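Researcher: If only I could read backbone structure tokens as easily as an amino acid sequence. Walk me, if you will, through where the backbone shape changes along the chain. I have put the entry right below:
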Amino acid sequence: HWKGRGYKIEGFAWWQGDKDRYNEAHAVQYEKNLVRLIKTLRQEFKAPKAKFVVATLGQTAKDTEPGNEKLILNAQLAVDGSTGKYPEHTGNVSTVYTHPLSQGGASNSHYNGNAQTYMDVGIAMGEAMVELLNNNIKK
């Protein structure tokens, strides 16, 4: 659709996981599916070097008790290129830990419609994307 229009995809932003937290089978597979999603989007859009920023669910803290939400949080954190778990993500995938940015509520209630939460998460994701793009330029 975009071919010949002068557009080039430089990156993707992903803030999702709410529905997966209600199903243990989905939560268990979340990391594997997220890795596959990153690879698939890059292939589908013919953007193999596109950066990818993931945002965690804001209601989930790192010290959350074991369960589906913790599985999803750990999966989202694991794909960050700085962890070394996925060498192909080094320098091109970043995860934004959004719990400190959440002003209350949860993803299933859309953070109680709190615009500040959305603004703060959006800014943090944008800053993470700019950092990935700038790091690529410096090399």
